[in-house]
From TrEMBL:
Coiled coil: none
Segments for region (Disordered): 212-241
Family annotation (Pfam families): VWA
Entry protein name: Nitric oxide reductase NorD protein
Domain VWFA per the UniProt entry, residue ranges: 421-610
Amino acid sequence: MAFTVELEEWVGSAWHRFITRHASPDFPEARVELESEQRAIGVLFRALGGASGVGVAAANPRDLLLRRSLLQQVAGTCKQLPVAWCDASHLRLPQSLAVYPDAALNRELYRWLALLAAQAGDMRHWARDNQAWTCALLERYPALRPRYRALVEAHLPLRPDPARLPSGEAALERALQQALREPGSVSAFPSSERAPWPLPLWLYPAERLDQPQAGNLDEDDESALQSSAGQRNDLRKRARRVEESTSKGGLLLFRLENLFSWSEHVDLDRCGDDSEDLDAARVAEDLDEMALSRQRLRKGGGLKLHLDLPPAEADDLPLGEGLLLPEWDYRQQRLKADFVQVQRMLPRGAEPKPLPDRLAPLARRLRRQFEHLRNDRQWLRQQPQGDELDLQAWLDFHVERRHGQCVEKGLFLEQRQTRRDLACLLLADLSMSTEAHLDNEHRVIDVIGDSLLLFGETLSALGDPFALYGFSSLRRQQVRLSELKAFEQRYDDHTRGRIQALKPGYYTRMGAAIRQASRLLAERGQRRKLLLLVTDGKPNDLDLYEGRYGVEDTREAVMEARRQGILPFCITIDQEAGDYLPYMFGANGYTLIRQPRQLPLRLPQLYRQLTQR
């Protein structure tokens, strides 16, 4: 009996593999994965005018009412097929392409879709708009014509034969094939009850995947949905709203004599497990459609303490009135004037303290390394008098005199003291994420505090004017800028005490902090101005500042600082910083510290490298 069951399972799996393979229209041996082409596609998309904040991600298969062959109906395949589409935030491409029997053509198809998306605008009519975008792209870049022709000629033999289709579908298929051969030549398309076979060279309308839950989920629902969806991959899921009501439940009938025992009900307060549910993540990945219900269990008695500011007697000390700053809205492509309020503050309970004994040996070593920069001397060439003979100037003079072109020049080298005309402001991220532990003894905030202390010890010995600030935020009305040392203040035990009194704050409204730091640097009279930002993550806040909005505002603040002659540079310990920091600070505007415990030592070294450029 067991042998029969195993044989049936083997035959069933073999049949499934056979029928699925023969019913599939793809060419598995020539498959190209999006992951291997994603970076190049993103660069190509932006190079040809695509929106800078649009990311390249995988598209989930879409339901299409297609006419399937008998083999496909038996196999149950081709109900869903991946197509390319683009919206305001993402360019969605198939997770893999095996449309052509040649891998080079599949790779070329990825590039064509990126180019077409960079040219595309709002879609009003699927076929006419794709023709117009194709014509505009080929007219602007004539070198693409042979590539496009090769893709079309290789794809047309793979499409359904109009002679084998019903009249309505055949007329639509002929019109589409004509539109592929000669873009712009077809303006009217016959109607059909079934969708045409997918056109891999065209973009499809954006799928409104977020519509079912819009307006029906509160803030907790949305954040939970986003976090759960982002655990595994970047595929977006369709959502369907379902209504659940306990009032519609059936009537349960039972007989008391069937109860054989009595038990006492006791309410127990059990700790909730907030760890990641990997099984749920895998199930969500396999689902094509998610049903969302508003009915859910709520944790009673919970307090979201981070949503409210502490009482005034326990909060940091404010310095003066708040400052109103603008913020960049990428959706409207403009600066919103007086949109953010920045409040300068002093850490409460900060008492003068010396440098901790554990940091004293490293501080002495750094001071010795930086002493020669303070007394740096420079040799000046071609001086009329000096300490040594300038052999290069003497050789030039000798050659010119032999050719009758003698020009009076100084022939000596003179050594003079050089003055470092430089000011630096260090801005440290104090958001709640810095509460995270690096090991059993050290938190991120502890490493940042040690870095500030050693940086202050080094620059005070060097003599360069510098300032130290920390920042966190709680929506746009409360961007908190902790003043640890202003430019006009001395670095002493008062500053050391403020640094050692730092505590993790709230969120990371990075753009406002950079703008205020740029204002403080712009008031300095030094020729060179350096803005260092130390952070452990990307911009975020409770309001719209999450995601692309915060990234775009930070990027705009960085560009504003550069237009003022300030050099912004970011030092991060976030291992995923390569996904967003190059866009915000540029390829050479940031560095990643892979071992966070090395930050206190690396920070002064990075300052030395940046100021010697």
